[in-house]
Specification:
Elements lengths: L3 E2 L2 H4 L9 E4 L9 H10 L4 E4 L11 H5 L3 E6 L6 H8 L4 E4 L2 H13 L3 E4 L13 E4 L2 E7 L3 E12 L4 E2 L8 H7 E12 L18 E4 L17
Parallel strand pairs: 1-12, 2-3, 2-9, 3-4, 4-5, 9-11, 11-12
Antiparallel strand pairs: 6-8, 7-8, 9-10
Helix pairs in contact: 5-6
Amino acid sequence: MKKVYEDATSALAGLLKDGMTVMAGGFGLCGIPENLIAAIRESGVKDLTVISNNCGVDGWGLGILLENKQIRKMVSSYVGENKLFAQMFLSGELELEFNPQGTLAERIRAGGAGIPAFFTKTGVGTLVAEGKETREFDGETYVMERGLVADLSIVKAWKGDTEGNLIYRKTARNFNPMMATAGRITVAEVEVLVPAGELDPDQIHTPGIYVKRIVQGKDHQKRIEQRTTRKRA
């Protein structure tokens, strides 16, 4: 089975359709599959439900899909860096399903593990729990959360091989490994692509069985959302 594609556009060919659900790895601008996101923008696909920790920033990351009016709904835990996101949500142009960050992570992990739902104490007694089933365990109240799966997961790794095995680097790992398991089809973008057999099996974070297509990205821009420095003494 050929997994390696020449570029992001060909890697997504035949996979995109209006109204689909897409998981996108990354945390802020760290570890985002920027080439794949750009290819989705160029495709013009619309009415997307996007599951991602946040929606990038104005003009970069998933923010470019917002600008192009391609996202109908976001399932996220943080949206504070994107002014357009706030404007679209407040005006009713964008739906938002807000999640505590740990709950979002576990919903994705559960979806990838085939677990349809689980109970957590996080959010009990708040807006997060409205309309959801609650249950008592050992005298404590828990709220039920559903696992998440997507039609397509796009993830970013530091290094991958031609069989789709992936290694992430430091904090750029973030949501990527769990999203790789929770997509019906997973497409990976990597910085370094090597022949099969060159990766140390003990270092692999995502086994290639989860990855259907892989592409070596180009011109990665490792932007910083907020650069904070202190004055020299």
